[in-house]
Every structure is written in C-alpha cells, then in structure tokens.
Amino acid sequence: MIRIDIISVIPDLMKSFFEFSICKRAQKNNLVEIVLHDLHNFSSKKHRQVDDYPFGGGAGMVLSPEPLSKAINQLQSERTYDEVIFFTPDGETLTQPIANGLANKGNMLFICGHYKGIDERIRQKYITKEISIGDYVLSGGELAAAVTADAIVRLIPGAIGDETSALTDSFQDGLLSAPVYTRPAHFEGIDVPEILLSGHDKKISEWRFEQSLERTKIRRPDLLKNEDPT
Ligand code: ADE
Q1: Does ligand 1 have an atom closer than 6 angstroms to the CB of 138?
Q2: Distance between CA atoms of 141 and 110, rounded to whole angstroms?
Q3: Atom of ligand 1 nearest to the CA of 131
Q4: What is the pTM assigned to this prediction?
Q5: Is the pLDDT of residue 227 over 80?
C-alpha cells in the first residue's frame, strides 16, 4: 500500500479534497493512506509559531527549520520514506512520467511550503525531490501536493473503476485524448461521429488514434517533438 504523509501549515485546505471521489475510494479500499500533519504541532515556540523573518531582509516570512526538522524526523522514525518531496515553483515540472514513477513507490512524505518558502537547509538535508506543478506561483504547496497525490492515486491498480481507463488518459501515450461522446446521439444539431455508433472496434480504435494525433498536432505540437525516435 502507498502511504502519503503531508506536512502543511494549513492541512485543512486539503482535507475535503481527499475525502471525495477517487482518493476517497482508494483510501476506503486500502490502496492508499493519506495522512495530513499540521506543522504547528511541531513548534516549540509560544503561539505555535512556525515562521520567521528572512535573514538579510526582504518581504515575506520563511518557514523555520526547527519545526520542519522535528516533523520530518518524527515521521522518519516511524517508517522509511522512498521520497521526501517539497513543492516549489523552482522544482521539476510535474509530468505524467513523473506521476507514473511515483505511483510505483511505497511511502512518500510531502512538504508544503508557505509564505516565502522554507529554510534552504531543510531542502539541502531532507528533501529528495522537488516538484512544481507549473510556471506560476501559488500561495503555498498545498494545492500542488493535492494535484500530485491525485495524479498518483488514480494510477494505483483498482483505484478507478475501469482498469484500462488510466492507460488511455491524455499524456499516457504521449498524446492528448480523442474526443468522447455519450447519449443522446443527436444533440443541439450536432451528431456523434458515425464511426462510434458502428460497433466496429478496430475502426473505432483507429479513429481514436487519428483524432488523438490530430488534436496533439494542433494543441500541443511540443509533445510530438519530444517523441522518442526509436
Ligand atoms: N508552491 C508555490 N507555487 C508552486 C508551484 N507552481 N508548484 C508547486 N509548488 C508551489
């Protein structure tokens, strides 16, 4: 079973996210355990303070090293972690191959920064991987942690109803997904492509592949350039 521990100054921000949909079902079926930890519980200061002013001046607060180290050390004394991941805009951009790799791990510890960031020494000493979810700045790592956990959890066998569904996701074969339709076959003047009603599985697969390729060419030509030439 995969276990994901998440340390944050606002764990409640992620609480309801993990209580719904696929993450909820995966936890109920013991495929994954997601445990939220409030960094304030590891503060030894009065008022449970966990941040401080940056040395050298400048705007914003920095998460202090002591509570983070205390939290990480306590969790690491209880189990070993395959990865200790810090969410930060200067990390490696999350992609499907990275999510696939993480879905094959066991225990993972996620650290969410807040304010201006976390003390650099925590990054040097404890962090094994740094992930960004895109080239924009969020108020904290919580949403990035939730996004990453969701991308991982849906890949765990049994987490989504249709076993093959995760494999046909956009990006899973380096292409965007083909368009999908459901009933009714005629809606507001637009018909479902005839081929999808034909019952001809091979032709449907070919059509979906062509559509995927076309969509990727138009919307994300960069994905085709990255294709392995072998
Ligand atoms: N924290 C703030 N911005 C972030 C981003 N884009 N990705 C991951 N963590 C972040």
Answers
A1: yes
A2: 9
A3: 8
A4: 0.94
A5: no
